[in-house]
Structures are given as C-alpha cells and as structure tokens.
C-alpha cells in the first residue's frame, strides 16, 4: 500500500506543534522564561497537558488514522471550548491577555487543519480499500 501523504503531514504537524507547545509552556511554568503580558496559569497548564495529548494523537495519526479521528476531533472541540472561555474572561477582566486569545485561535486553526488532514487520510484509505476489492 502506498504511503498516505495526508497522514504523514497531519502526524508531523501534530507532533511538532505539540512539542513546541510543551517546551514553550513548560519554560514559562518553570520560570525559565518570563512574558511581558499577563499569564493565566490555568490556561498555561491546560496548554502543556494538551501538548502531551497532542503528541499521543500525532502518534495515533501515524499508526491508526481511522482511530485518530476521534482524538483529533476531541482535541479540536476542547480547544474551541477553551478559546470561547478565554475570550469571555478577556472581555470581562484583565486576567487574560490578548496574546492568550490569539494563541488559542492559532491552536484551533492548527488542530482544525490536522483534523481535516486526518479525515482526508481516512478517505484515501477507504478509496484505496475499495479499489483493492474490485
């Protein structure tokens, strides 16, 4: 069976983005780097945890793209939910910086792309299986 490029791209994006999220969030949590904006610690902890979850999802995309759809959709839904909450907090107080709103928007967009690529990968596998049955 030929390699599915959509699966590879989705897995690589998920793994690299998740690694970057873990490194960035951990350096702030550990006090290694400081930000020039208000850091909302619960959001930072969420992002690091979701970075670990994203690594897991990236490996699942690589090994089992069909099963990965569930994980990518859950991650995307979680990010959308948290983004809405962060926007409300931003609008109602100074506990969250605009940078955090923008970062959540980036996370939503990245995981939307990963989810769409994973879905395309699944469609390619189904189409390949149909061709093989004929």
Structure explained in plain terms:
The protein is 84% helix and 0% strand. It is mostly helical. It has one domain. Helix 1 (5-29) packs antiparallel against helix 2 and helix 2 runs antiparallel to helix 3 (65-92). The mean pLDDT is 90.
Regarding quaternary structure, how should these chains be classified? single chain
Secondary-structure-based class equals mainly alpha
Mean pLDDT across every amino acid position: 90
> What's the β-strand tally?
0
Name the helix and strand elements from N-terminus to C-terminus, one letter apiece: HHHH
Indicate the proportion of strand residues. Answer: under 5%
Topology, please?
Elements: H1 5-29, H2 41-63, H3 65-92, H4 98-133
Please outline what is shown here.
The protein is mainly α and 134 residues long.
């Amino acid at each position: 069976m030929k390699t599915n490029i959509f699966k590879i791209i989705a897995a690589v994006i998920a793994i690299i983005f998740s690694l970057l999220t873990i490194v960035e969030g951990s350096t702030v949590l550990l006090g290694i780097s400081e930000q020039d904006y208000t850091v909302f610690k619960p959001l930072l902890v969420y992002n690091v945890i979701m970075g670990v979850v994203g690594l897991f999802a990236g490996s699942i995309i690589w090994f089992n793209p069909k099963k990965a759809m569930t994980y990518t959709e859950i991650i995307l839904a979680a990010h959308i939910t948290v983004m809405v909450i962060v926007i409300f907090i931003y609008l109602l107080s100074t506990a969250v910086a605009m940078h955090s709103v923008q970062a959540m928007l980036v996370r939503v967009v990245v995981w939307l792309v990963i989810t769409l690529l994973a879905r395309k990968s699944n469609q390619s596998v189904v189409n390949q299986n149909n061709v093989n049955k004929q």
